[in-house]
Structure formats: C-alpha cells, structure tokens
Design a protein that fits this description.
Layout (H helix, E strand, L loop, with lengths): L7 H6 L4 E8 L3 E7 L5 E8 L6 H11 L8 E6 L3 E7 L4 E2 L3 H4 L2 H15 L13 H13 L17 H11 L6 E4 L8 E4 L2 E5 L6 E4 L1 H15 L4 H8 L5 H14 L1
Antiparallel strand pairs: 1-2, 2-3, 3-5, 4-5, 6-8, 7-10, 8-9
Helix pairs in contact: 4-7, 4-8, 5-6, 6-9, 7-8, 7-9
Amino acid sequence: MRAVEPPAALRDRYAGWSWSPAWTYEGAVTTWRLSTEGGEALFLKVRAVEEAPTLAEEARRLEWARAHLPVPAVLGCGSDGDADWLLLEGLPGRDATAPELRARPGLTVPALARGLRRFHETPVHACPFRFTFDGALATVRRRVAEGRATHDDLHPEFSHLSIEDAVSLLVELKPADEDLVVCHGDYCFPNVLVEGDEVTAYLDLGELAVADRWWDLAVASWSTTWNVGTGYQQLFLDSYGIDPDPRRITFFRLLYDLVS
C-alpha cells in the first residue's frame, strides 16, 4: 500500500534521521518512524487534507489528554495544503499488533480491557469534546449523501444490508439513554502500547470525546477477532467487568463502519 509522503520541508528538517513507514492505512494516512543512531525516535503522522478528523483536531485532543492519560507529546502540527502532519514523541512499548503480543491473546486481551477501563476513568466533566447519538447520525447521513460511506465500508456482519437499510437500522437501534465516559473513539490493537501485561500508552486520539462507553467497548471487543481470531470477545468484556449489551454492540459496530 502506497505511503502518504510527508511535506518536503519536514524531510529536509530531519534529513539526518532514518525514515521508515511504521503504519499505513488505506493509502490515506501513514505514520513514519524517524530514528537516530543514538536510539532517539519520533513519529510523524501524515494524512490527506480531506480526511477527517484533521490532525489539528487530534493534536488538541492529545494536548488535553496529557493531563489525565499517558499519551505522546505533540512536537508540531501543520499542513502544506496537500497533506496534514502531526509530529509526536516516541514512547516505550510495542503496539498490541506486535507478533509476540498477538501470540498470547490470553494475556494481551485482558491487558487491553484493563487499559480501556483506565481510559474510561478519565473525568467526564473535564473533557470539552462530545460525540452524541444525534451528532453521529447526522455525520452518517452526510457521509452517505456525499458518497463517502458506501456498502463497501460494511463488515461481513452487515454486508446483507443496503446502505439505506444500514442507516435505517442505526436509527431503529439508537439507544434511549447514554452511559457517558471519556471514550478513545478507535480503541483497537494498533492504538495502544503494551509493556509486560499492561497498557502503557494510548495512540491515535483523533476521535476522543465524551460518549456512551459502548462506543469503545463494541469496537474494542470486535478488534479481538480481527487481530487474534474468534473466541476472545467475551474475555475482553469479562476483563473490563461488564455484561454484553447486544443492542448497543450492533448499533456502535454499524456506526463505526459508517463514520470511519
């Protein structure tokens, strides 16, 4: 998959560093690892300017979150008109997609669940960002109307639905109340760092907001199947300390497909 190239000015600024793609997603965003022979490491996230949320929005969330959670410090943020960029400090630990972590799901899955529980303990009253049901549905309708959310975005669980039926099902399943916490917004294996048996840092906070806790739980438990295979979703929920809520799980997984 083609990497998204950084602005030339940043290439020049860090010309003496080694550059390697650390993560590329659908040709729309690439995280570059910059390193020195002395072991210093930085991470540069680059994405096309039309992608949302913007990296400026992610920078604001990271700067807010540093008072409450272990997240990377923002070292710079900008745009050259073709690409947005966000420069972050490197932190110790391996993201949970590391082969040695995926090879021991009986330890890694509970570690991620405990890490999410810790994230959800962040004080709601202090968080200025919101992700409400009504706002989410408005975003879905806009993305469908613009052709940015299509049937191709649906996971196999929802592939029997037309895009119109998917939106109708979202409206039907919309919960009547919200169990509000500070949510990560995309809590899955690539977005957490692990050392030993514990999450030590959180990455990719562009969707951080106060929202229903199942916004994270539905996607995080789903992520276990994508990364370590079937049979671990219940372990994730048990380790977090919550019983399944099938209606909310379906609502938020379908929402994830249509807003991501």
